[in-house]
Structure formats: structure tokens, C-alpha cells
Write a structure and sequence with these properties.
- With 202 residues, the protein is α/β, with parallel strands linked by helices.
- The protein contains 6 helices and 12 strands.
- Strands 2-1-3-4-12-11-10 form a 7-stranded mixed beta sheet. Strands 5-6-9 form a 3-stranded mixed beta sheet. It has a two-stranded antiparallel ribbon with strand order 7-8.
- Strand 1, helix 1 and strand 2 form a beta-alpha-beta unit.
- It is globular and about 40 Å long.
Length: 202
């Protein structure tokens, strides 16, 4: 089977870091995605951190919001970090005016829940599905998950708050693993994409 192609939504945020992390996972071809037609050329998509309101508005402006929702609904693996987690939530507790989400995970998120930029921090996290040492989580104006539905699986918590969730082929983290040099979370996502491709080929 050919190497999976994983896109990184390149509208705003730390796109380059995710492209590097996916390449370092040594199991995928990574490429930026900006236009609707590029969505049909990928097997999975990463939605990076940045500013969720800006990403939402640009996704609508560039015409990718509707087709991306459709692909996620049809089962394409997707991984969102920080603002990307907000984009994958079915509900935002405190949305900005006009802010939309892609959805895909039955969860309610709170924007900027861990504080402002100058309150950024790192924490060691035990993440379900990641073997070995704890994952070093970098939290920058990060959201947390207020609650999840029955279909969503909590993968990690910090200080009593949910910071990593998976539902089917959708994965989301409050933190930024692409900034640490530890590519195990990206490796987990690549494994999800490979499993999806295998199931699609049967």
C-alpha cells in the first residue's frame, strides 16, 4: 500500500511545525492544504493551533469549511491541536460572534481556559495509547474540554481538566506536541490514518 498523504490545514497557525512532525513520524507524506480540491487528495488532516475564530472565518472564506465537514462526517481521520481542538468540538462554551466549528467530537470546549499567552506552561501527561515516558504538553492559550458525550474517549487530563480526546477517527489535544520534538502523538494519528486506509481498501 502506498504511503498515506496527510494534510495540514494551512490557513493560520503553526503549520510548518506540524509538517515537520509528520515527516519525522517517518510514515506519511505531509502537505499543506488550503483549497477545497486539495481535500480530495489527502487521507487525513491536521488542524493546527492558532486562533480558532480566525481559522473558522478563513475556512469559510476559502471554501473549505463545508467540504471538510463532509469528509470528517464520512470518516476521514482528523487531528486538531489547541485551536484545532476547538474546531473539532460539536459545541463551544463561549464562542465568538460568527464562529463556526467543523465538529466531529461530541464535546464542549472552553476557549483560552488555561489562561492568557503569558500564562503558558508545560506539563508531563500520561496519554492513553502512547507508550513509554509521559508526553510533554505545551499549553499556549489552551482550551480545555468541559464535558464529553458517551461516544468520546478521554485520553488525558491535567489538573482535573480533559486535555486529549478521541472519537472514532477524530483526535484532539489542548496542547502542542509539534513543539516538543516528541512525535509520538503524531505517530498515533498516522496509525489512525493507516487503519482508515486499510479499512477503505477492503
Amino acid at each position: 500500500m502506498s504511503t498515506p498523504v496527510i494534510g495540514v490545514l494551512a490557513l493560520q497557525g503553526d503549520v510548518r511545525e506540524h509538517l515537520v512532525a509528520l515527516a519525522a513520524a517517518d510514515a506519511a507524506v505531509a502537505r499543506p492544504v488550503r483549497r477545497p480540491e486539495e481535500l480530495s487528495e489527502i487521507d487525513g488532516l491536521v488542524i493546527p493551533g492558532g486562533e480558532s475564530t480566525t481559522i473558522s472565518k478563513l475556512a469559510v472564506l476559502f471554501g473549505v469549511m463545508a467540504p471538510l465537514r463532509a469528509r470528517v462526517r464520512d470518516g476521514m481521520p482528523v487531528y486538531g491541536t489547541c485551536a484545532g481542538m476547538i474546531m473539532l468540538a460539536d459545541k463551544i462554551l463561549d464562542p465568538r460572534s460568527g464562529q463556526e466549528t467543523i465538529g466531529g467530537i461530541d464535546m464542549i470546549v472552553r476557549r483560552n481556559a488555561f489562561g492568557r499567552q503569558n500564562e503558558s506552561f508545560e506539563a508531563a501527561l500520561d496519554v492513553k495509547g502512547i507508550a513509554g515516558e509521559p508526553v510533554e504538553g505545551v499549553f499556549i492559550r489552551a482550551p480545555w474540554v468541559e464535558s464529553v458525550g458517551a461516544a468520546a474517549e478521554v485520553l488525558a487530563e491535567h489538573d482535573g481538566h480533559i486535555v486529549a480526546v478521541r472519537q472514532g477517527n477524530a483526535l484532539a489535544t489542548s496542547f502542542h506536541p509539534e513543539l516538543t520534538g516528541d512525535h509520538r502523538v503524531h505517530g498515533l494519528f498516522v496509525d489512525m490514518v493507516r487503519a482508515y486506509r486499510t479499512a477503505e481498501s477492503l
